[in-house]
Amino acid sequence: MENIWGVCGFDIPLFGEAGEARQGKANRLDFVADRYPAISIKNSERSKRAAQGIQRVHILNKDQNIPKQWKKYLSSGENKESLIAFLCDHWRSYISSSLSHLDCIYVTRKEKCLLITSGTTQTEHVSTREVPQLECDHEEADTILLLHYKAAALSHQRIIIKSPDTDVFVLCIAMQKTIGKELLMMTGTGNKFRLIDISSILNVLDEELCACLPGFHAFSGCDSTSAFLGKGKVKPWKALQMNPRFVEIFSQLGRSAEVSDELVVSLGTFVCLLYGDQTSTCVDECRYQLFKSGKYSDDVLPPDSDSLRQRIKRANFQALAWNRCKDCHNGQDEEHNLEEIDGQFPYLNSTECDPETDGDISDDEC
Q1: Domain of life of the organism in this record (predicted)?
Q2: What is d(CA 4, CA 100) in angstroms, rounded to the nearest whole number?
């Protein structure tokens, strides 16, 4: 393999051991991480993860034990940022022989990207410099991965992305055609380990269908947007396959910061079809017909038109970030002109997703 994207595992007791990069047979390793800005579409999800309390841990040295309550430790953005800072500093302290067959390591730290390479001799410390071309304002590692994939494709023929995240899987399918180089995705552990050839998936799906996946995934539910109760992913996917005219509709999500009334109406029609109503074109009418039938309780009815509009805005915000994954500057906050109201940011703080189950393809069928 010419290139591998991976992160070290944390099934080991010491922070120093966690910092030893698993290099495999790659000659380049890119380690990317999330940022934690104050205004974030994921604030609600992170608040839920921290509902059981936050364990703030300061990393003092590499011999310090990793916290036993690892999930609780990772529920804090401050803990994650300090861990990333520690890993960066730890790798910068390597001597050149520690890189083995690696030519370089790219490490992201907030907006910056550092390039670590061997010194002039194997006994010297590694050389470190910033890479301005890979500085970016993306919040999620999901999109930063694709930005680094684009950069690596300039000099490598095969790239492996290592991630358990469904969002990354969707982005790989949507973006591989535009970048062009062979792309594999490594996911799962043990008996569930898989190496997925993204190109083989593209041979089955139409190019237009692949292009609409970010919008479809954001609308039907991801780790930052809520799903339709009881519908999961399979039912919306089947509804899309049975009604291919909506492929273009979902492709419009994330094209710009503005959501048109026509897009809201079209997605409302899709929701009606999702709930088995073939005649209604408005979710309010669909809700009324389903309620009148007496077969549905309130909690399984589709959202009303006002709630649906907010859902669409939120999905559009997320899809816009994904669609701009190959650009260093995201620019979402400026375009959406986000304004805080009573400590909230309108449609950015209303999600019912389950952070314990959403966004992981380790147990999914692909």
Answers
A1: Eukaryota
A2: 14
Count the domains in the chain. Answer: 2
Pairing of strands 104-109, 28-31: parallel
CA pair distance 203, 40, nearest whole angstrom: 36
Structure tokens given for 263: 């897009």
Strands (E), the chain: 4-5, 28-31, 104-109, 112-117, 127-130, 158-162, 182-187, 194-197
Per-residue DSSP letter, 97: G
- Note whether 159 and 246 are same-domain residues: no
What is the rounded distance in angstroms from the CA atom of residue 285 to the CA atom of residue 30? 50
Write out the residue range of the structural domain in which residue 278 sits.
212-324
| Angle at 309 (CA atoms; ends 307, 310), nearest 5 degrees | 65
| pLDDT tens string 6-61 | 433 334 455 554 455 455 577 888 999 888 877 777 776 666 666 666 778 888 88
CA-nearest of 174, 155, 64, 57 to 106 is 155
Both structure tokens of 303: 């959202």
**Rounded Cα–Cα distance for residues 306 and 283 (Å):** 10
Same domain for 100 and 70, yes or no, is yes
